[in-house]
Amino acid sequence: MKTKKKLIPLRIRITNVKTISVILLCLIALIMSRCAKERLVSDAIIGKTLSANSPDYLKRLSAIKDSFYSSKFERKLIANVNQKYSWIPDWEHPTSQVVNDTVSYVFFPLIANVKENNVTKTVIELGSAHYLIVKNEKEFYKAFYYQAKAPNNSSKLAIDNFTGNLLLTNFENGKSYLLDYVEGKVSQSYQKRKMLALNRESITFPNKTSYWESICHTELKYCTWASDGPTNCNSGTVHIIYSPDCNWPQGNCGSNYSLIDSSEITVCQDQWFPDPPTDPGNGGGGGGGSDGDGDFNPVNLSNTITMDPNTRACLESIKNSIVSASQLSVTMATLLKQVHNDNTKAQNAVLALANNPNVSITLGEKTIPYQTKTLPDGTTTISETHGQTDPITGNIKLNTLTLNEASDMAITASLIHEMMHAYFVWGANNLTGDEGMAFSDLNRYLFDQEDGTPHPYNYPELGFMQHWQMAETYVNSMAKILVDISIAKGYGASPDTSIGMEEYCRDIFWGSLQQTSGVEPPDAARSKANSEREYKNKAGSTGKKDCL
């Protein structure tokens, strides 16, 4: 909101219109010149990540240092109990890291010091490590690396391939983020919390205490202690150690200790820190567990859906997104005791394929020509097949024409659709006993209504029956997978402003199911239009980025 400024009258006697025009032109030129300069400065910074190979690397590091001190952030690095102790950035030994095209980090080790009798001495930090982390040269964070379980307080913390926790605290707004790391990268559990955070609105059920309300306020308490003198650890120097439970560390390294710093911080687990860094020891610039485009990391499941080496690489990324989104939805349903939830039926089907050592499915692509059909009224229509699933093996082939033409969201929808076909093939022909009965009860259109046997692979109406089953039982949960992926990808609001994103995703599936299942969607015309928008990648679609 702009503050209105009081205008000071010009003490000039203006006698004619020409004089007014000259003054106005001068003012406009001055404003335009100033805006142009500001724009040039802005354009020079925005979108330009900082790496050790940047030609202006040292100049930009110097600017970071100047910004740190001009903002008086050094005051935030003074211990709050004993102010003789503080941490000072090691400006001479930075590590830079590029996460993706728009995000980079610089790490400056924080050196612990104690000032006694106007003499500053370096103190060795054992069992933990502090860094100043600067994101995109403008966001300053105090970074605290530690291990909550059985910390080793007799030696320096190994930061290369770090496994443990990272507490990030923003110097400007005080917001804290707690990240988990495994071997130098953000852990899978933290990746899952990303999805939970993004979906906190969709999983809040009426008249129930939501998962977020029950775990959001987590207080992290920790204390930092300093030895009263040199110890027999680490070459006999004074050192400081971290205590996760604030217990007095008497007897450690043969010394007594005094409390110098303590913190009590609220960390909400639904606050996702976007594009997190890898550990400072990994300066090469990985994605810190994120591939930089908002996608999911693949869940560590059995490699039962393998890639045809002749297909484009984007399909594996899309497959992983589908599996990971399904895993997260099922995990949340379990936590919320919503196991038998219509919103997780397709997710369970995906996981039955992806986490089953008895399943072996190949995913590839092939060209399936579109067909022109003449309708009874004499008009023609184009029939498009976006993919095929082998009715015996369950192997999936997406249409190369669709991959070339459709938006990424439409391609993802096609793969979800074909994975459902593969699930039907596998379940109907392999599940027995109680599992087989549960499968047949849920998927009754896949079985003969008289003798209860599954329709054979050469049954003329097999495709129709499978589509009928999708439309009757799975379309809502199939759309939910697509919604979760669209949120992670940052697609934003529904391209159809008359409906929300979840309904829009349902329309994408209904676009083809209404023609192949015999089931009428809620709004056939709208579904057809929205589905066409994505499959033809028309103006206003969610767009084509990854699968080119």
Helix percent band? 25-40%
Number of helices: 12
Average of pLDDT: 76
SSE ordering: HHEEEEEEEEEHHEEEEHHEEEEEHHHHHH
Strand tally is 18
Note the main sheet: 12 strands, mixed
Shape: elongated
Give the amount of beta strand, in percent.
Answer: 15-25%
Number of domains: 2
For the termini, the CA-CA separation is 42 Å
Radius of gyration: 30 Å
Which structural class best describes the helix and strand composition?
A: alpha+beta
Please mark out the parts with pLDDT under 50 across 5 or more consecutive residues, or reply none: 1-18, 30-47, 194-219, 283-302
Structural notes for this entry:
Helix content is 34%, strand content 20%. With 548 residues, the protein is an alpha+beta fold. The chain has 2 domains: 56-201 and 211-270, no CATH class; 305-536, no CATH class. Strands 1, 2, 3, 4, 5, 6, 7, 8, 9, 10, 11 and 12 form a 12-stranded mixed β-sheet that branches. A hairpin with a 5-residue loop joins strand 7 and strand 8. It is elongated, with a radius of gyration of 30 Å. Mean pLDDT is 76; it is low at 1-18, 30-47, 194-219 and 283-302.
What distinguishing features does this structure have?
single chain, twelve-stranded mixed beta sheet, 18 strands, 20% strand, elongated, disordered N terminus
